Amino acid sequence: MNPNGLVPTIDDGGFVLWESNSIIRYVCSKYAPHLSPADPQARAGAERWMDWQLTTLLDPINAIFRPLVRKMGTPDAAAIETARVQCVQHFAILDNVLARQSFMTGATFGIADCCIAPVAHRWLSLPVERVAAPHLEAWYAGVLERPCSAVLELPLS
Fold it and tell me: What is the chain's mean pLDDT, rounded?
């Protein structure tokens, strides 16, 4: 269904869609509109975090995840360490945001939390040294208490 041959891909009554954040936007719009802010500025704020997740956060996570968990390629200790340091910096940004507010875009769980949570799951599960991020960790624990979070409780694979 996905011309790239990758997941995630959904088929919603014949409408096929791929790309994680596009799927999140679509599913939230159709089935959970309360997760997407109606106010254009609030929505842009949420989508900023979604774009940041794709453009900034995901690459260093994958630079660690792929060799250590998926066993893709030969692990390069220096590259993994560089990625780990980047992740520490990026997750410190999230920890600082979550020190001031309950969720990624304010007082309520929303669309940005949906895309940050799986990456936080990877980070908090990877076999690497992490710096304490108490606000991120508390936020993540709260996400795990939500319905439909069971996928985040699976071990990395």
Answer: 94
